[in-house]
Amino acid sequence: MFEMKEEYLTGITEVDDQHRELFRIAKEAYELLNQDFIADKYDHIVAIIEELRNYTKKHFADEEAYMESIGYKRMFTQKMEHNQFIEKLEEINLDDIDNNQVESLLKILEFLDYWLGHHILENDILIGK
């Protein structure tokens, strides 16, 4: 389901490598959802959220530094979307996850699917042009 395909490539090696890592994290969440042998997935879900929080902050900072270095005209819009992504991750209620693990994973996956599909294809691709 979560696979870095050619259409997601920006042509900027560092950005593309970091996007691959985001796809890897999303794939890990998807695989956890489908793992029937782990009854209590709470600790795994929290670990994925923490990994996303930490990794996206680094990725966004690197991407924004690159955009600034090339004088990218749409940088303000990108920064706003990056901040919204981080805020969304920060708003996740860990008690809700504990009580509704499958539903929580599905929400995280929907969010990542939208983000990876739309943000990269509609916004990040333009950085490389």
Describe this structure in words.
Keywords: Iron, Metal-binding. This is Hemerythrin. The chain has 129 residues and is an all-alpha fold. The protein has a single domain, classed as Up-down Bundle (Four Helix Bundle (Hemerythrin (Met), subunit A)), CATH 1.20.120. The protein has five helices and no strands. It has helices at 13-33, 42-69, 75-90, 94-99, 101-127. The chain is elongated. The two termini are 27 Å apart.
Characterize this entry briefly.
Keywords: Iron, Metal-binding. The protein contains five helices and no strands.
The CATH top-level class label = Mainly Alpha
CATH superfamily: Hemerythrin-like
Indicate the mean pLDDT: 94
Helices, by number, come to 5
User: Into which percent range does the helicity of residues fall?
Assistant: over 70%
Q: Largest sheet, described in full?
A: none
Topology (SSEs and partners):
Blueprint: H1 13-33, H2 42-69, H3 75-90, H4 94-99, H5 101-127
Helix pairs in contact: 1-2, 1-5, 2-3
Provide keyphrases for this structure.
single chain; about 130 residues; mainly alpha; Four Helix Bundle (Hemerythrin (Met), subunit A); about 0% strand; metal-binding; metal ion binding
